[in-house]
Amino acid sequence: MKYYLDITLLPSDDIGVHFLWSKVMIQVHLALVEIQDENKKVPVAVSFPQYKTKETHAQAFIGHKLRLFSAEQADLERLDIHKWLSRLTDYVHIKQIADVPDVVLGYENFNRRQKSGSPDKHIRRRMKRHNETVEQANLYFKDYAMKDEDKALPFIRMKSLESNKDFNMSILRKEVKQGAKQVMFNTYGFNGSALLPKF
Q1: Which of 14, 30, 50, 187 lies most in the core, judged by the most C-beta atoms within 10 Å?
Q2: Could you tell me the pTM of the whole model?
Q3: Domains defined along the chain, listed by start
């Protein structure tokens, strides 16, 4: 990755940072969908420079900054993120496209993690799928517990464009060594095999 663009979220008294993340990421997703190829892949990655998990901090939090990366400057220009975030201009600060620094702290990538989910979610789903009562479904999941690693991850509240349902998009960060090959990304800007510079 040779080029990047930073977006800083600016919450206010009436608009919280979590609400802003939801609005920003939905718009980023729409922008990435607009430039996808025939395989539903895009040349732009997302990164969260202030990412923290519960394992290392008191609270999991994605931070206030979103960083977009690309190998070609033209890809970030084609994304035209200013257009997609135009309704949020009071709540975001978008920097100009810049060169990735020659010296970086390391490399990482981000991916969406499908969480094990809360027991209540599984109970409701089982009741619907198996036509069971709440008591029967509760009995089936009596020993179920959400995985600790799932609870430790930061997430962004999203809305599915297909089903119109809300979901929590848990984000997993992984440190990687230099040498990963050039990859494309999904329409959320994720790829677990990517090599994104940290700085």
Answers
A1: 187
A2: 0.79
A3: 3-115+153-198 (3.30.70.2540), 119-152 (no CATH)
